[in-house]
């Protein structure tokens, strides 16, 4: 990619966008090239390079290490806990473009645990691969009662924003959620979808959403690429 | 281990404790033996077995799966986010015994990132292996300014509850924390300490604690066994 030297977009903004795309696509491994290399490669001034880089530092995509160069921060998507959001909302908050690809939908009756959690005899699964700026980030398995599943099925599940449909179209009040976060090892199918080596470490989350009457509405199991996703929170100290 | 049939402790409580220790020590892999097997092995009634097992289900250590048996829940230690606690407090809240072993203490000047985060030129590291009921659960790397580190050094770092010392003895107000959670692959040294296979998935956390003036007090990097530790939170829905 090259810069438009007579276009309306300032050079440092163009350079920033190019570097950002290259970083997100895994073009660089740990570091970006030196200032001098970037100046020569893109035929721009040191000032332009510095402005572009410092914008990416500010966005949390790069980190400067004194005397060692500029490193790629590990985790572009920050999921802020404290209130719960959909993947779509989380990715939009990062200034990235959300996307999804339907992997499975339909009724199921195993695993047993899902039936216990949702308090149903049979359930509905919608499994999607989720993207941020076209990079695979997560696999989300949404479990619902068959009643809700049959309604959701009427929408285009490849692109539907499920929480919008639940809240706006089905009039369901997504009130409270209990979430648990740990990690595990990717199985073959998941690692293929997420484009990571088999047996890689993956970040795992389980979340149960209730309506205001305490009725379980959705159980969500998510598998995240840990190099691309983190959970974040600000907390006060417990006083006892 | 066997039961005391003429002791003061009810049989189901004794059996519960034995099963709990066996589970926590990894004696069983995924399931515990059937009711009949436990009855025969410990020479107790079905009622005793059921009471012991249902206490462990209630504690979240076991899960029953209809027609398939009783499974070991993955994650005994639940770290509830929302307010921040020390490892000692978290483990005590689970009804388990906290423990620690000092791995390293002293001044350091790399990695660079720590200096930036703590806003210092040199820092102090206290690295400890943490236990719950004598099972290795986590490696905690506490980073402080050298000023604080020099004070902490006066205590027995193998057993000191660092937040107690900071708050009660040094009069530091641990006010607010920013925490980030993701996962990664264990390196050789960490996997040995945690008694897990090399390259296992580990749960990773970084937390920066500030005093009420916004001055960074502690940066904490933790590595958790994901089969033993999870982060948990209850949240309301974001309204926009």
Automatic annotation (TrEMBL), chains A, B:
<protein>
    <submittedName>
        <fullName>GntR family transcriptional regulator</fullName>
    </submittedName>
</protein>
<dbReference type="InterPro" id="IPR011663">
    <property type="entry name" value="UTRA"/>
</dbReference>
<dbReference type="GO" id="GO:0003677">
    <property type="term" value="F:DNA binding"/>
</dbReference>
<dbReference type="InterPro" id="IPR028978">
    <property type="entry name" value="Chorismate_lyase_/UTRA_dom_sf"/>
</dbReference>
<feature type="domain" description="HTH gntR-type">
    <location>
        <begin position="9"/>
        <end position="75"/>
    </location>
</feature>
<keyword id="KW-0805">Transcription regulation</keyword>
<keyword id="KW-0238">DNA-binding</keyword>
<dbReference type="GO" id="GO:0003700">
    <property type="term" value="F:DNA-binding transcription factor activity"/>
</dbReference>
<dbReference type="Pfam" id="PF07702">
    <property type="entry name" value="UTRA"/>
</dbReference>
<dbReference type="InterPro" id="IPR000524">
    <property type="entry name" value="Tscrpt_reg_HTH_GntR"/>
</dbReference>
<dbReference type="GO" id="GO:0045892">
    <property type="term" value="P:negative regulation of DNA-templated transcription"/>
</dbReference>
<keyword id="KW-0804">Transcription</keyword>
<dbReference type="Pfam" id="PF00392">
    <property type="entry name" value="GntR"/>
</dbReference>
<dbReference type="InterPro" id="IPR050679">
    <property type="entry name" value="Bact_HTH_transcr_reg"/>
</dbReference>
<dbReference type="InterPro" id="IPR036388">
    <property type="entry name" value="WH-like_DNA-bd_sf"/>
</dbReference>
<dbReference type="InterPro" id="IPR036390">
    <property type="entry name" value="WH_DNA-bd_sf"/>
</dbReference>
